[in-house]
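Job type: complex structure
Entries:
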Amino acid sequence: MSGILRLTNVTKDYPRSGIALRDVSFEMKKGEFVFLAGHSGSGKSTMLKLLAMSEKPSNGEVRISGFSSANIKDREISKLRRRLGIVFQDFRLLPDRTAEANIAFALEVTGAAQATIGPKVARLLTQVGLASKATAFPHELSGGEQQRVAIARALVNDPFVLLADEPTGNLDDRATHAIYLLLREINSSGTAVVMATHDISLIERTGLRFLVLDRGNLMYDGTDVARLRADMRGGGR
Amino acid sequence: MRLAWREVLLAFRRSPALALLSITTIAFSLYAFGLFGLVAINIKAALRTIEDRVEIRAFLVNNAKDEQIQAVMTAARRVPHVASVGYVSPDSAMQRARAELEEFRDVMEGTLLPGSIELRLKEGARDPEVMKQIAGQLQTYPIVDDVMYGREWIEKLYRVRTIAGIAGTGLGFVFALVAVIIIGATIRMAILARTREIEVMRLVGATNGFVRLPYMLDGLLKGMLGGVIAVLLSWSTNRLVSRSFMQTEFFTTEQMLLGVLAGALIGLLGSWISVGRHLRRVWQDR
């Protein structure tokens, strides 16, 4: 497996709130699933922002799919975004559009051919298990269902990496597990997944690689769940 | 482009009150500008009418010979600023005086009025300096007894025109600036109402140009509609004033089109600035 994203000695310093990430390095391979663990304010979201090139590091380099934070141009960022999928804790769906319209919108704005939009939306809704809720508005869906729509939207461009920022943060245990299984299924088809979470038990159950962040420092990178509990208990604010 | 137009129509349909507010604000900003423009063109027209009456009159000595008079008139015609030169004989002057001052008809019996040469100047050449210079030239002819051109009156008229010009440019600029600021603010409100859409567009990889396009069209459309309404409001006001108070001039077709175009441009400019600022903010926040 080859590396698809790499952070090299990355520091992110915000002028007002201070250092959010300090000298962080890590690499991820194609098709890998990695958790980002840490308490609120540990730097998980900042790392995802840097990976999406929403922000540039104060020091170091972020390299993803051949694009480097050191020299990426604004117009190249939209190209990169078409190769990424991004989901958030609060879903960020358009409230006045149905589930299928939310997904179709993402295809339309990236210039997909009109004839391909309908079939692709139907396929994605089936993939996330919401074929029967295509015409439902977000307020008519449960939290878990809304997150499924958001995931379907993130998949419109067949991304090679899916960045998920606390996607289960607003969900109960059952919905959390269902979303995790969906992300694993997506991952098994070759899409790498970076999932930020503070749900220790979820990470423990999976036995997958995780990174622990604490106040901007990378405390651990591996699969040893004993370290996870120790680092998470020791850190925080 | 089809998607962009659809988004514009959707925005109108989803928040008609906001769209209406934007259009009304643009319309009234341009209306205020239009009313000021109407006042300005009517003041200019009034000054032009007054200026048309401006003339230089050279009174001749009693024994001036025809060839001497002709020589002065030929010389006057050669002056670049002069539009027309006419001769009023003593008899014509008397007839004119009797017609204009009928109540003094008896007093004028047996009186001899001097003949005169009347000069009208071209538009744009009726300033006090030019008139003074021409009057001075006429005064050098021996057959010219006196030259009158209402010096003080001309100087006052010229001063009023200069002040009106400066005030007009200044106030026009202020009105236009206020219109741009108000329009920018209303378009910004419309953009804030669609923050989530912009965010989604950016997330899935829409280009800046693509994100901007619906808002630019939105601004263009609102600006144009506002411009058309402003022209209609100005026209109604002008018609009301013309019917009730005094005959006034209205904009030419070109000026009206320019008004609508100005609305469209202001709408575009307001959108461009507002979306640009918003795009930068979304970029930094995410």
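Summary: Residues 151-192 of chain B form the longest helix (42 residues). The longest strand of chain B covers residues 82-88.
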